[in-house]
Amino acid sequence: MRNYKIAVIKGDGIGSEIVEEAIKVLDAVASKEGFNIEYNEYLLGGSAIDVFDNPCPDETIKGCLNADGVLFGAIGGPKWESLPKEKRPETGLLKLRKSLGLFANIRPAIIFDELVNASSLKPEVIKGVDLTVVRELTGGIYFGEPRYKDGNKAYNTMVYNRDEIERIAKIAFEEAMKRNKKVTSVDKANVLEVSELWREVVEEVAKNYPEVELEHMYVDNAAMQLVRDPKQFDVILTGNIFGDILSDEASMIVGSIGLLPSASIGGKVGLFEPIHGSAPDIAGQGIANPIATILSAAMMLDFLNETAAANKIREAIKSVLKEGYRTKDLAAFDAKEVVTTSEMGSLIADHAAN
After folding, report:
1. Total of domains in the chain
2. Is 163 a catalytic residue?
3. Which of 222, 253, 284 is the last residue of a domain?
4. Model-level pTM?
C-alpha cells in the first residue's frame, strides 16, 4: 500500500473546522483508491504564539520538511494584531514559506456551472472560466531591502533577480503545457525597471516553450480584463504583490473566496491551502465553506501523483453542488438545502468514496 506523511496545520479561526473536513474527504478517497495517509499536526500563527510565543516554531518547520505534503488552514485574527510585526501570525507564514523554499504559488480559478449565478458578473461572461494564477511568492516588494518607516516617511523596495524570475516563469510555462498553452505575463514595465527585467527574462524562458503563446500585459489592464473577459486567460504569470491582488480578484469572479484552493511549491514539499483567511468572526459557528480547503487537498493529491483520487474529489464536489447543497455563503444561489461545514464535508466524502 502507498503511504504518505502529511503535516497538518489547522491554524486559527475557521482553520480547524475546514481542515477537519478536508481530512474527512482525504480519508474517504484514500480508502477507495488504496493508499494510506498518516497525519502529524503542527502549530503556526496565533495558535503557535499562544503556546510557544513564536508564530513559526522550529518544530513546525522540521515537521513540514519531513512530510510528503502540508495541508494548511488559515491564520491570524484580532487577538494578535497588536503584537510587534515580527511576532504576528502572518510573519510566521512568511517564514514557513521561505524555510520550505516555496517560491511559486499556484491558484486555479474555475467556475462551477452550478454556481454561475453566484458571481457578480453576468453568466455569459464567466461561464466556462478556467484560469490559473502563478504568483512568485518569496521575492518582490514584500521581501525587498531596504525598507523603512518613521513618523514622516516610509519606503519599501521591489527587488527581483534573474534567477528568481526564471524559476517562476518555468513553473508557469510548465503549467501552461498541461492546459491550453497560453501564458499572460503581468507586469508594469512601462514605469518599473524591475518589470523591465521581468519581461526580458520571461521572454528568454519562453524560447524553451515554442508551443506556448506568450503575451505581456500591464497589471492595471490585467485587472480590467479579468472583469471584462476572464475567459481570455489560461495561465497568468506575475510577481508577488500583483499576484496577491489579481488572485483575490479572480476569486470573486467565480463567486466566493470560499471556493478557491492554492498550492505553494518549489521546495522539497508543497503546501496546500485555501486562499481565504481565518474568518474569526464566523469561527465555531459551523458555517464556513470547506470547499476551497477540500480542493486544496485535491491539489495535494495531484502533486503526490494520486491523480485519480484528486479527480474523484473534484467530481464529488460537482455532484454535491449539482444536488443543490450549499453552505451559508452560497445560500442565495440555487440552494436546495443549506448545510453546515461538517455536513458539506460529509456529503463530499460520501460521494468521493463511491
Report:
1. 2
2. no
3. 253
4. 0.92
Domain identity same for 85 and 143: no
Q: Which of 10, 24, 188, 312 is catalytic?
A: 188
Which of these three, 253, 281, 300, is where a domain ends?
Answer: 253
Instruction: With beta carbons less than 8 A apart as the criterion, state whether 312 and 295 touch.
Output: no
Angle at 144 between CA 15 and CA 241, to 5 degrees: 50
Q: Which residue in 27, 68, 130, 248 is the catalytic one? A: 248
**Is 334 a catalytic site residue?**
no
**143 domain residue, yes or no:** yes
pLDDT tens track for 5-37:
999 999 999 999 999 999 999 999 999 999 999
Read off the pLDDT of residues 299-327 as tens digits, 9 standing for 90 and up. 999 999 999 999 999 999 999 999 999 99
Active site residue 62: no
Question: Is 98 in the active site?
Answer: no
- The residue written with cell numbers 487577538 in the block is 79
249 and 265 in a single domain? The answer is no
Q: Scanning the structure block, which residue is given the C-alpha cell 512530510?
A: 67
Alpha carbons 222 and 342: distance in angstroms, whole number: 37
For residue 112, being part of any structural domain is answered with: no
Q: Which candidate in 27, 142, 170, 334 is catalytic?
A: 142
248 is catalytic: yes
Q: Which domain holds residue 300?
A: 1-105+256-354
